[in-house]
Amino acid sequence: MGMARNQILLVDDDPKLLRVLTLRLEAEGYGVIATSSGEEALKRLDDVRPQMVLADLRMPDLNGIELLVKIQGRHPSLPVAILSAHGDIPDAVRATHAGAVDFLTKPVDRDRLISCIERHVESDAQPNWADGIVTRSKTMRAILEDAQRVARTESAVLITGASGTGKEVLARALHDQSGRRHAPFVAINCTAVPAELLESELFGHRKGSFTGAHADHPGLFRAAHGGTVFLDEIGDMPAGLQAKLLRVLQEREVRPVGDTRTIPVNVRVLSATHCHLEARVADGRFREDLFYRLNVVRLRLPPLEQRREDIPLLVAHRLDQLCANGSPRRSYSPEALDVLAAAAWPGNVRQLFNVIEQTVALAPSRTIGAALVRKCLGEVGEGLQAFDEARDEFARNYLRQMLELSGGNISRAARLARRNRTDFYKLLNRYKLDPAQFKQLDDE
After folding, report:
1. Which of 278, 300, 322 is the last residue of a domain?
2. Contacts of 364 by beta carbon, 8 Å cutoff, 6+ apart
3. Which is the most buried residue in 107, 266, 387, 424, by most CB within 10 A?
4. What's the domain range around 369?
5. How far is CA 423 from CA 133, 312, 413, in A?
């Protein structure tokens, strides 16, 4: 998915000023979510993720600083600026101490307002940011927005999540959005290289330093100079090598195996793991000091079962990829899509893509049926849910998708589902879905 155009959440109980600021920001190309109270703003944040919040200081329900504190509790990386008609120094100090990124005095000067927003909103984001990450999930979109903010920094990022959730895909997206995007992105899986060779692969070696070292080898850190190193499954790195990696991160230089000299390196380190690193720190299997070096910012990818609304999108995306690579064009029957949407996916997106590739290769006709999908799923797709549970879960996800597509508009959602409005309401009540939660979600 591409990121939506930059949106500003505007909060002010003065309707005239709210309108003026909305028009001013829209004229500058920003999308504006205009709200007249702090409580309304908090409700909107359940559905939308703006790139910045501008909040009035004095409002009757929640004042600007109270709203700021609540926003930080939910979305700590979301920048909030405070607007005030008084401009008192004590108010500005209180706002700054509470975490406001700026304090603007009304009437707000246009140039200062735009300058404030430009400092805190990435207006020159790469057009293909996170293009390979297909999602409509609110959870994933929030993760991508956090990732986009941290991408432009030099902070180390630890990406956690089960195998197959797309940790390397996200790491590549971080690199592509960073100031290092024109330099190399070098990835290594710490479990894929024998422990005795991992140091050489990372830091290089001199010719003759060990049996089989027939030539000098620069190592991946030097190969990535100026760019990004991605250390996948960092939690499985041998203890002895953890100390050497920590030294490289601290000193920004490597010492090849068999060499007495050190060589400066300029890299950003991203890492990933499927395991619980805190537990490994607690039992002594992972160095605490290295953990804190790597875990400056953490991005947690959810398993596919927690973003089932993405399965139809992922299926279409993978079919397009396979077709572009020379496979015949295929499509799934509605019953086959039902099976994919309701199946357990312990292998997450990687497993889903594998099943899609299998069914495309084995399908005897253009349309892939449910029987072939069940065959390729094997035991993984059997006995994991009762039929009624699988059907209800699919129905709930389907209704949620209709609401997302319609922006919470019941009449439009009912038309998309080819049901009358009364029946559609009954279905929403049965599956406990609130249309208000999806209002304007399609405008993001």
Report:
1. 300
2. none
3. 424
4. 304-381
5. 35, 24, 12
- Same-domain status, 267 and 168: yes
326 vs 208, higher pLDDT = 326
CB 200 within 8 A of CB 194: no
- Please say whether the beta carbons of 2 and 46 come within 8 A: no
Could you tell me the two tokens for 147? 């990732």
85 located within any domain: yes
- Counting Cα atoms < 13 Å in the Cβ hemisphere of 49 gives 20
Please report whether residue 335 resides in a domain: yes
**Are residue 321 and residue 400 in the same domain, yes or no?**
no
Residue 183 · residue 191 · CB < 8 Å: no
Query: Is 130 a domain residue?
Result: no
Strands (E), 294-334: 297-300, 331-332
- Cα separation, 235 vs 239, in Å, equals 10
- Size of the chain in residues: 444
Q: What is the CATH number of the domain that holds 26?
A: 3.40.50.2300
Q: Can you give the pLDDT at residue 358?
A: 94
Q: Say how far residue 353 (Cα) sits from the centre of its chain.
A: 19
Q: Are residues 68 and 29 in the same domain?
A: yes
Write out the H or E segment, with its range, that includes residue 267: none
CA distance linking residue 336 with residue 339, whole number of Å: 5
Domain total of the chain: 4
Return the structure tokens found at 166: 């797309």
Whole-prediction pTM: 0.62
DSSP state of 234: G
List the 102-105 sheet strands across, edge first. Answer: 31-35, 7-11, 52-56, 80-84, 102-105
Residue range 350-368: mean pLDDT, rounded? 92
Do 410 and 371 fall within a single domain?
no
